[in-house]
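Subject: Adenosine 5'-phosphosulfate reductase structure
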Amino acid sequence: MAAPAEASAQVEATAGAASPAAAPKLRSKEELKALAEAGAAELGWDAPARDVIAWVERNFDLPAVAVACSMADAVLPALVADQMPGVDVLFLETGYHFPETYATRDEVAANLRVNVVDVLPENTVEQQDRLLGKDLFARDAAQCCALRKVAPLQRTLAGYELWFTGVRRDEAPTRTNTPLVSWDEKNGLVKVNPMAAWTFDQLVEYSEDNLLPVNPLLAQGYPSIGCQPCTRKVAPGEDPRAGRWAGSDKTECGLHV
């Protein structure tokens, strides 16, 4: 394990590293794909999150499991850590996050039984500015996301058999058909979305009831939190993700498409 279950740690993963933990022996893609199909059939469309995580715990071992977390809240890491303490929590350290997001990451690392891993792109913001010009996000947001989110995550996920995400069906029209369990062909591992059927209100209620770390921006008009230059407040009644890449036709960073 990358960290003992009773302690939290924050570890920086280099851009080319599969995982900061000792690399486990992974099952074949054929075996994992069959498991994903079996899990989807067993859990159906709306099994409770705890049942979904329990299925993972029965069929997968640490450290071959990871949780992806944007640090908007800590509900998913907390739910998974209840049944799989010491799990790696992957934070995409783009270099562009709000100060509140970094503070939430540090609070998660300090207070939950997880191992927070900073997933780094190949270049720092300063290096990228020198190579491609300043503020790539303003000129080509898709390329910026590809370099600072998609590619680093893909490299890191190569060291795991399964990843959890907090994607919910109510977040955007592009996410309404999100399954609980699926085979992630692009990244070559099982993808599990245990909170797919949750609403934003359920998320907030669970977080408050369990006194979990939460990004203060959620209460300040930011229901979907990404990189600071590409995220604005959302007006009442707007789509929760309307504040992401506002003014463009971009709706996803590429992680879940």
